[in-house]
Amino acid sequence: MGQDQEDGERLQKVLAQAGVASRRHAEKLILDGRVKVNGETVTVLGIKVGGQDHIEVDGRLVKRGETLYYYLLNKPVSVITSASDPRGRPTVVDLLKDIPVRVYPVGRLDYDTSGLIVLTNDGELAHRLMHPSYGIEKTYRVWVQGPVGIHALETLRQGVLLEDGKTAPAKVQSVSGLLKRTNRESKNDSLEVLEVTIHEGRNRQIRRMFEAVGYLVVKLERIRFGPLVQELALRPGVYRSLTGDEVKKLRSSVKL
After folding, report:
1. Among residues 21, 97, 122, 235, which is most buried (max CB within 10 A)?
2. pLDDT score recorded for residue 99
3. What CATH number has the domain spanning 70-132+230-253?
4. What pTM does this model have?
């Protein structure tokens, strides 16, 4: 074990691959002094470990080659996207009953936002799906008091200047007419419904984008995450395992 060791892999990557946590969280575990390698506490990043090294987190031996699990959840509103909440509010992990391992949400959905979220113990995949360099697209269905003007639509498409910088161009289209024709929305509903696709993951990004162009988001739902698309059978609060083909597509989307 050592920073200059040619063989082996970085400790935080090994922890992520073992399903201990996402790579970012694994780095924090190391910096917080909660990880030991061969009985020695490691507190710096960059250490490499080999197959014979014994790794412990909080005194528990890390098992490598652990079976990886992948789930897709339709998150309801009023649920926290976290493994736990100090205020005792329900979390996405609470909704996954009788699963054999501890899994973690990939990215976040706001408390008042519903829709698709992936949970897994595959830390390396989770890290890449959340990393902006891979540009994973997410599509949201957005309800606002309409109609949304042409200038506002073009601003959303070209990029909106927010306090943390200008957003990347987004794909935006109105689907109000389509939903009414398929009886998925009331024909007397005064709200305009749009679908917005982005590849960034800033905090409350969609809501802030619409607020910046003068519209308040009344309801927000994520209907697509990368290659995974919302389905009628997956009602709010319901989850299912991803198929092998879906896992393959997710991994392929981030070059794994």
Report:
1. 122
2. 87
3. 3.30.70.580
4. 0.75
